[in-house]
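Researcher: I'm preparing a figure for a lab meeting and need a structural model of a single chain. I don't have an experimental structure, so a prediction will have to do for now. The sequence is pasted below. Please return the structure as tokens so I can convert it later.
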Amino acid sequence: MKRILFIISISMVCFLQSCEEPKEKIDEPKDLESLLDLYPDSIPLLLKHGNEMIIIRDYVKAMADGAKSYRLDSNNLEARMLYAEVLNNRPERTLAEVNTAQKHYHVIVDKQPKNLKALIGLAATYSQQQDFEASFKYINQALRINPKYRDAYVLKGSNYRLLGNVEYTKSSYETAIQQDPTFVEAYVLLGAMYQAEKNPVCIEYYTTALELQKGDMDITYALAYAKEIFNELEEAKLLYRAMAADTADYYVARGLFHQGYLKQFNENDLDSAIFFYSSATTTHPYYLEAWHNLGLCYTDQGDKTQALQSFAKALKINPEYTLSREAADALR
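Model: Understood. Here is the structure written out token by token.
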């Protein structure tokens, strides 16, 4: 879950106030990394850099900035906030780190009762501890301060999702979109929920998300697959072609695989399907499903040797893959 991240806006002079001035007048570098090399103990620089690292999800650098700024001045609430945000949001966080973040958020909220970011961060720690009563308490406290605070509705939706309340989850995410119509993640989450319900309205949500975040391959993949399963095949093909032209092997292989799938199962064009599956396995040699489907194509063409070799490749990747095991046994 993403939260709105507060990025400190401060002039260059203020950035350098906590640093010792160089003895000689030099041209100051403009990029933040270089400034930090010159002034490694500047708390304003560390805070700005750390918050920027959170935005791009570079939690290793964000952790270094947060821990250092907090160590330099433990009374600085912004430094405490940065440190808590990193602890609470990095994917490899431990329960102990969540507990530590919770203590930091409590300190901030005690001193700044209307700090919305801290209130939602605090609520998130309780969610991770499965204490939803406490989580909703702080979410509602934030909403009493600002009834239009987007991140409060996002966390509310996440809580309801964990509690299995689908309708309340949808309602919360829809409200988040009302507060911020550019909030891509909510469109994607709603798209996934409607897709799970086999509701074609998911296509509208994915389409909006991709319009807001053009070129995002994760969203492109979600939209392409939704169009595939709801029989908008020509548009799905266009999106899969875009994926196959990407620079990341993951998306290239999947774009090729799905083109092969459509050729195999929708058009009965086995030669083209074999071409796409083979291209997918060349791009991503451990693409299990591509090897299996390749085996099915060769089976349908009567090429037993190539089929068995393809199933063998799939079983080498996953010896427990039942579909390839059964298909190979049937050929022997």
